[in-house]
Amino acid sequence: MRIHYWKKLALLAGLSLLAANAAAQTIKIGLVNSTSGVFATLGDQIDKSVKLYMKENAAKLPPGVKVELIVRDDGGPNPDNAKRLTQELIVRDRVQFLTGYIWTPNTMAVAPLLTESKTPLVIMNAAASVITTTSPYLVRASLTLWQSGHEIGRWAAKKYKRAYTMVTDFAPGHDAEAAFIKGFTDGGGQIVGSVRMPIKSPDFVSFMQRAKDMKPEVIFNMVTAGAPSTAIMKAYGDLGLRQAGIPFIGTGDAVTEEELVNMGDVPLGYISAWNYSNAGDRPANKAYLAAWERDYGKNVPPGFIAVGAWDAMDMIYTAIREQAGKVDPDQTMKVLSNYKNPNSPRGPIAIDPTTRDIVQNIYIREVKKVAGRNMNVEFETIPNVKDPWKELNKKK
Description:
By secondary structure, the protein is of the alpha/beta class. It contains 13 helices and 14 strands.
């Protein structure tokens, strides 16, 4: 009798353990980031925001489900490296989600791998409009340069007639250039000159001097966020363009929050169009900033890349939650393609299900001194902006 009793208990215990193991699920997320090299400051923004999101939202996962984050460093713009790392994450690590991807060329390089393996990728930054057309398993949580470039072009056309453009020579820079020119010339403005600058180690002084010599009424720029934005702002200040009466405007890459702390007073008065400012007076933004400052302090504030990472993680957690942890790639893409969040730190956001691209407010901002710190103060809101490039290139 006693032996039978203990055998029965052992059997029940074994069945309970099997049930517990069956219920416990681990969702693997592959994060391809840039954590070394000249652009490591951008990777640091993503790293901090992802960790903060996971800490703040652990309770929002379904019961018995946990997330394992597998991080890889692409070292910056390097399509071959990004492709190799992505293939390893898919084949060896068997991730169910991919995210990160700061760089457009890196993201474009991995698109065929996503389609072949049916692995959803939520873009945290890469901003060329065409990206989401390259695989049905791509969705973007960040922005496109057409969203910001077109709106600052429309805004500038109301104030200036002659503009010069200077952009980084890669796909997002080309998008920003084309978008600004479209918005500016449609509003009656004239482009008096344009230049495309190399992505690595550009001589901003010579490019800025060339722009100054053209005597435009305004200079539009787009450079990669991070150290290049501080360098181009320094060139603008050193060559005395403000004193020459030539204002500097552009996309928000040039005045990201984490770089503004390095620029002194040169960027004061810089007007930009962008999807986020940490000066934004929104309850969700205030809560996000409070959590960031609690964990990381105030010295390096979060910028748009950090918020893109935060929202990308929310999209992934939403897809996990709506499938009760049993994720299927095609069902995941349905969830991601219909994602909406009225309370992102940047304001209301949604994914356009026909393009899998972000719909969001674009803010016109001016760099001002607020409580002793330079901040992008929003003064105009263009609500619910879809990607203009896709709107202009709709299939008939």
